[in-house]
Amino acid sequence: MRNIPILILVSCLSILLGCKGKSSSTTNSTASSPPAATTPTPAAAAHPLPSITLEEMQKLYNECDYIDFIYYNMDFSMSVNTPTNVQRVVTFVDKTQPSANATCPAMGRIIYQKDGETLLEADMHYSQDCQHFIFYKDNKKVYANNMTQQGIAYFQQMFSQVKVVPK
After folding, report:
1. Per-residue pLDDT tens over the stretch 9-62
2. What is the widest separation between alpha-carbon atoms in the chain?
3. Cβ contacts of residue 30 below 8 Å, gap of 6+?
4. Are strands 108-114 and 117-126 parallel, antiparallel or unpaired?
5. For the residues of 67-110, what is the DSSP string, one character each?
6. Do 123 and 104 form a contact (C-beta atoms < 8 A)?
7. Are 145 and 97 a contacting pair, CB within 8 Å?
8. Nearest-CA neighbor of 8 among 46, 52, 57?
9. Which of 54, 55, 152, 165 is 20–30 Å from 18 (CA)?
């Protein structure tokens, strides 16, 4: 049971490393598309922000000890502070990027912390049409990534328990 988070981390890191190795440049690369895309179209263009770096993901996974979820226009917020749950939530960040035309509003803010200090923040865009994060450093947008299927399932379950339906 204790090896499952390590296995998840190794899998995520392998995927991220594999993608990073195939790209000639990791900054401002919008020409690459996910392997599943067969016909590139303007609607499927990658987000103008780069994907979060492997180093940033490793830092969050290894150092983050507390995550706050602050939801806009909702009567609740949530925190995660056990090491296994914090690491699990960190793995909800997919290596793929949202499309450039994903314009749904943010439903909340996620604050990744270590010892009370903010490591990274992200707007969570979650609706029927959007499931992605926009990350911030120093109040500036720096990365954009989709949610993993596990992340989508997690939020679906959580919102169904509190009787919230994403718009």
Report:
1. 334 433 333 443 333 333 333 333 334 433 344 445 556 899 999 999 999 999
2. 46
3. 45, 46, 47, 48, 100
4. antiparallel
5. EEEEETTSS-EEEE-SHHHHHHHHTTB-SS--BTT--PPP-EEE
6. no
7. yes
8. 57
9. 152
